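Course exercise 7: structure representation. Students receive a sequence record and must write out the corresponding structure in token form. The form below is the worked example handed out in class, using Ger(X)C family spore germination protein (374 residues). Read each field label carefully; the graders check that inputs and outputs are placed in the correct fields and that the protein name is recorded exactly as given.

STUDENT ID: A-19
EXERCISE PROTEIN: Ger(X)C family spore germination protein
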Amino acid sequence: MMHRVRQMIIVFLLVCLTGCYDQHELEKVTLALTVGLDLDQKNNLLVYQRSPVFSREAKTKTEKYGILATTIQQSYTNFDAVDTAYTEGGKTQSLLMSKRLLQNKRVFPYLDVLYRDPKNATSLRMIAVEGPVSDIINFDPVDKPRLSLFLAQLVDTAVHRHITQKVTLRQFHYMTTEKGMTPFMSEVKKEKKEVRVLGTALLDKRGYYRASLNLRESALLDLLRNNQKEPYTFTIPVHFPDSEDNSRKKNITLATTLKKQTVNTMYEQGVFQFDINMKLTAAITERTFRLNLESEKEKKKIEAMIEKEINKQVAALLTKLQRHQVDPIGLGLYARAYQYKEWKNVQEIWPATFSKASLRFSAHVDIKNIGALK
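STUDENT ANSWER:
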């Protein structure tokens, strides 16, 4: 009896042990933490790769390669021809794509291997690059972490502050297959001694670049998408016609929280209509003028000014989106949910239909906190 119990315990332990037949030694693996796609002057595909080096004998701890290839998978084979380790894509942090590529080529076929091969990372960040991708791949920041980690942290911090959009490969695939919206991604640029977040790059349903949103517009897009993680920070210019001193610009900065959002969807006279209403609570974090905010009358006056400015900025953003026939907000999802009969007739041409829709936005601001100082 004891012998059988002992055998069962041994079998149980063997089953629970983690196998290591497929172990990979770091010295024999090239971890492609950053991958870049660009076009040369003849519109041939350029694939870049940046990887850490784990050899103690190596003086340079980073490998950077750039080669001509027809696909990403072929580039991995070509990378292995010049490297002492074989390339692994399962740890990729960021995929950089130049605006030149996005303007001239359909990007979806190039991404097929990333979706199809389960060994590849689907949580990598999709990033559009203003200028050559090689400028970022070859950038070695002196006072920052490794570039691959730095890029990931840079985008994540910008997303936290609502000045760009974080889009993973998995999310990008959803956007490209979902008929009720158009895809987008973060946008960065290599400047003299730094990499700067520019905002958000907007693509059409075919994957071509259509327009860019700056930092302020990206924050408004995040607000419209109801993607709140932290309070939104807005600096609003204000004007008092009856003020004695109108020579100096007056601004007020708010930390804004979305309390409630409603989207009313209608279809009248062959046109979709979307009424977007938001209730916002705000805390004043800065003001550059004298104002008695403890007075209810003055408080209502400043709230009205803030509402007017936010409505104006959002209206300009919506006009821009319609002009370029892109719907990163996903209003097509509301059209399908509430006006399905009409949606069925236009689902294949939703971006064009969206460009002709009637969009109305209204913000209602309630200042809850005026800060620690009177």
